[in-house]
Amino acid sequence: MKKQNRYLCIYSFSITFLLMLILFWHYGYAPFGGNSMASHDASVQYLDFYSYFKDVLSGKNNITYTFSKTLGGNNIGVFSYYLTSPFMLLCVFFKKTQLHAFFDVLVMLKLSTASFTFCWFLTGRFHKHFSAGNTSIKNFSMVILSVSYGLCQYSIAQSCNLMWLDGVYMLPLILLGVYHMVCEKTAWKLAVPVALSILFNWYTGGINCLFSGIWLFLELCLYATSLPFSKKVLKSCLKSILYYIFSMFSGVLCSCILFLPTISAMRNSNRGQLDLYCLKNFSFTGNILTALSNYVFGSTSVYGCVSLFCGTFAILGLIALFLSKKISRKQKLIFGCFTFLSILLIYWFPFYTVFSLFKNVSSYWYRYSYINIFGILFVAAVFYLTVLEQENTCILVKSSLIFALLMFLLRCRLTDRKSLQETALIILAALLTGVVFSLLLLSCRQRHRLYKQLSFLAAVALFLGQTAYNTQLLMNTYHVSDDAKYRSYSMNTRNLIDTIRKKDSGIYRISQTTSRKMLKSLTTANYDEAFGFNYRSIAGYTSSPDDNQRDFLEHLGYRKCGKNMNITNASIIGADSLLGVKYILSPYRINGLQKISSIKSKGRKKAYRNPYALPFALIYPDHHPDLTEKKTNTDPENPFEYQNYLYSILYGQDISIYEPLHYRRTSIGNSQKGTPQIYSVDLKQGNYAFYGNIPWDTVMDRAMLTVNKTYTTRYSWWLAPSLFYIPSRQNARTASVSIKSAEGYSIHPDGEQFYGLNLDTLSRITRKISSGQPDKLSVKNGYIRAVCHNVTDDHHSLYLSVPYDRGWQIYINGKKTSYNLIDNCLYSLPLKKGDNTIEMRYVCPMLRVGAVISILGILLTITMTLIENKKRRLEK
């Protein structure tokens, strides 16, 4: 039987893989064509992370700390969330220009593995029901249900969030561990998959752990009702609960090597805070009946309406279980309560919050709905694998009629053509499924070989046709068609970065004003290319940002956006120079930057050098009490004056590189008429770069900003900048800036800021500041060393363009030292008179503690397993 079970699991894996492979080949998905499943955040973020991971494997980048993350920071959170799947190791077989193909291969493998593990769950969970009866029907049903799980709506729709699919294929192993623990009191079969699920992706690992608690009570109820009530049964249930607590505890302990450092890293931002206030909201996210009415081919999940589609075979099995007379009333009550609870997990806001891991999510709705799909398939499996043989052959026909009637009643008000087609198709498919599988059951009972073969082929064709059709519809919704563009862009940008490195081997940052995917509004969310091309940058968009860096960048003029990123697709020369941005990649010229004609580029972006960039480390006089008043009076919401203040600190006296410009409002916007608000800005004569900033109090929906009739961009929007560059012709006297919003204006009263950056002053100041460089400087990911000889007195400090992080251990001349922070972000290290050797070593917070706890968890699990085995031997 065990050998047969292995074959069933392999069949489930193979069917899923081959079906996806055929669809990818037929519709031209990478590696067969230019389409790819890497849509949404996969296109914006994950491909760059995969490129980074290849660099990590080859020793070119670092897991615990990297300067590719915004200004530099702890990257263990990014690694543990996106990159710890064992399938990620296959990236060594793909080039960086082939990441779309790599992504699609991983989609196929993870979905196929989900089918495999679900079949493994069924063979383990229902092994007692295979000793008698028609095993061919049961085997066929198991394979169908398993493939239905691997290719369910969630798996295809969330394939763009590839890391979540690890939770999909680990869930069956965890729940099988719960079953074994209830029946056999075996701890390791639950502890091990719990640990692996958290290690592979802690987010879905957390969802799986929460659902395992519900599953425990389901299994205990089924166990208790299968036996006459007695103290022995009650004692066994209580013992199972204790075993469950121990197993979960051991599993979590084993995962602490990554879990604890991840929790520590997430404390660096508000992303680590729990939205517990959502638990007080007892409303519903939508009408619970939409869970059934949206059970159609190609359906998607939106807020208030989930899609749990996993085939007509599954839903008919669920309905048939409640029609069956072979299922006891107690069991029907248990499965009914479980089904209702599964719906509440989706639609009742407290449950919605809990299974979103206590976060008020605003995208990728019902990101845990695979657990609900698992529940549907499990209830269906109970019917098909335990009572179908004993039932009337027409029960599936009855189920299909009930389903068809319910769908008609729930969707009869939908009269548009698409909805009518969806309704007709799902009703027809359900009726066909009921008829064909009833005929298959009848032919097996009558043992008519020809009819059995024909009905079997009809059932296979019907199931594969439905599954392929639904998968294709979802693929059409969740895909991109830019593999060729990605390859070209990747090669051009990599050549550009490599050429810069060959010409300049120094320590600097690189920024850019455009990315691979720019919207028509000149905005982008692609801020992770520093990961992809392995350079130091100022941009980043990850699930574990560092808020001290985000606040600092906003003070410099790079606006915070949401909870994950800053808008850095512009070049604020003063800010860039302060951060050591020496090179800017841009498709357009920016006054003050020098185009490097010797660096050729086949793409739109050209390389520009920032002649004012400060070195990564510099010595400056830190005793200037005259700047105290300037600090008090400096408004952090005015990025120009704030930069003036920061430059004054490094220069040692009050200076101004930005000068305010006079402006006039020549037109005041009227929301009813849709007239724009126009500013006429007086430009200074000389060597200047001009900027504007128009702070807003609330978002101005659909607002557009036009600058000097040169470019138009979205403004006061999710991805829009706040500070903007004003291009101007030589000797121009004025510039025009206008905002147009049909929804009204919410500009901060008299908050408009227009400034000119005096490039001559900036040049003079940066030359003076840059003269105080360390004699030696080495900067690597996680290690910095600087040597400063002959410091004249104790009133000097070493400025480092390195952001604060708890993991940095700082030593001067071998002794641990104190430090100061510039704007709570960048390090300023006090120096002593004479020679100073500074070393900074990064130790990932909680990594060593997590490793020790993981070892203890492993030893605890092994010890408990040995005790269990010894106890079983004694009982025999």
Key phrases:
876 residues, 14% strand, five-stranded antiparallel β-sheet, alpha+beta, 49% helix
Helices and strands in order, then pairings?
Layout: H1 2-26, H2 41-57, E1 65-66, E2 73-74, H3 76-82, H4 99-125, H5 135-150, H6 153-157, H7 165-184, H8 188-200, H9 202-225, H10 231-254, H11 256-266, H12 290-293, H13 312-323, H14 329-347, H15 349-354, H16 370-386, H17 395-411, H18 417-446, H19 449-477, H20 483-503, E3 509-512, H21 529-533, H22 547-556, E4 560-561, E5 565-566, H23 573-578, E6 581-586, E7 594-595, E8 606-609, E9 617-621, H24 628-633, H25 639-651, E10 658-660, E11 663-667, E12 677-682, E13 688-693, E14 704-707, E15 711-714, E16 723-726, E17 734-740, E18 753-758, H26 759-770, E19 776-780, E20 783-791, E21 796-803, E22 808-812, E23 815-816, E24 820-822, E25 826-830, E26 834-842, H27 847-875
Helix pairs in contact: 1-4, 1-5, 3-11, 4-5, 4-7, 5-16, 7-8, 7-9, 7-10, 8-9, 8-10, 9-10, 9-14, 10-27, 11-27, 13-16, 13-17, 14-16, 17-18, 18-19
